[in-house]
UniProtKB/TrEMBL annotation:
Keywords, ordered alphabetically: Acetylation, Cell junction, Cell membrane, Coiled coil, Disulfide bond, Endoplasmic reticulum, Membrane, Phosphoprotein, Tight junction, Transmembrane, Transmembrane helix
Any one Pfam family match given in the protein's UniProt record, by short name: Motile_Sperm
Transmembrane segment boundaries: 205-225
Subcellular location(s) per record: Cell junction, Tight junction; Cell membrane; Endoplasmic reticulum membrane
Protein name: Vesicle-associated membrane protein-associated protein A
Family of the protein in this entry: Belongs to the VAMP-associated protein (VAP) (TC 9.B.17) family.
GO molecular function, one term: FFAT motif binding
Membrane topology field: Single-pass type IV membrane protein
Length: 226
């Protein structure tokens, strides 16, 4: 019997009748509570054979304990018109009985056999699968989500539009200032109207600086975001 012995271990015993008469057989054991034998008795036709299954029940195996379990296969020629198997064995004479004794041997599998069994039970690895099981890994999160990005882009576009508008106003004011300077130079009388036009031209300079600052702010903001 080959272990491990944590479950039922079955060994088959083949009995063959080489004679030209029917033979009755019976299987006996010294430990009937430890074994289940099917069939434990029967008749074998001439030249035929029968398989007897011997099932060892689970137990705690001790490698230092020597097995003393034995089996005996007892046989006798079957009488004609047999009807009661128990009566055959009771009425059989000792010189009509034949027996074969078998000793039980318990063996545990070696470490190499265990490793081979484990390797054989492992499924083969699957490489380069076309489809990956489970959810796909999520991409790394960014600092800004799509909604905030759209808002910043829209704000940048709005600032650029305002910068363009201020640029046009600045160009218009610059042209107006040049025109006023020409008028001021042509007006040599120093009239109040000429002085007022000079004041308007000088007042346009701060607006020009504001426009230039807005242009630089919009340029760097757009370049940083986009």
């Amino acid at each position: 019997f080959s272990g491990p012995f944590t479950d039922v271990v079955t060994t088959n015993l083949k009995l063959r009748n080489p004679s030209d008469r029917k033979v009755c057989f019976k299987v006996k054991t010294t430990a009937p509570r430890r074994y289940c034998v099917r069939p434990n008795s029967g008749i074998i036709d001439p030249g035929s054979s029968v398989i007897v299954s011997v099932m060892l029940q689970p137990f705690d195996y001790d490698p230092n304990e020597k097995s003393k379990h034995k089996f005996m296969v007892q046989t006798t020629y079957a009488p004609p018109n047999i009807s009661d198997m128990e009566a055959v064995w009771k009425e059989a004479k000792p010189d009509e009985l034949m027996d074969s004794k078998l000793r039980c041997v318990f063996e545990m599998p070696s470490e190499n056999d265990k490793l081979n069994d484990i390797d054989a039970s492992k499924p083969a690895p699957v490489l380069n699968t076309a489809k990956q099981d489970g959810p796909m890994p999520k991409p790394h999160s960014v600092s800004l989500n799509d909604t905030e990005t759209r808002k910043l882009v829209e704000e940048c576009k709005r600032l650029q539009a305002e910068v363009m508008k201020l640029t046009d106003e600045n160009r218009h004011l610059r042209d107006e200032g040049l025109r006023l300077r020409k008028v001021a130079h042509s007006d040599k009388s120093g009239s109040p109207t000429a002085l007022a036009l000079r004041d308007n031209g000088s007042n346009s300079l701060p607006s020009l600086l504001v426009v230039i600052a807005a242009i630089f702010i919009g340029f760097f903001l757009g370049k940083f975001i986009l």
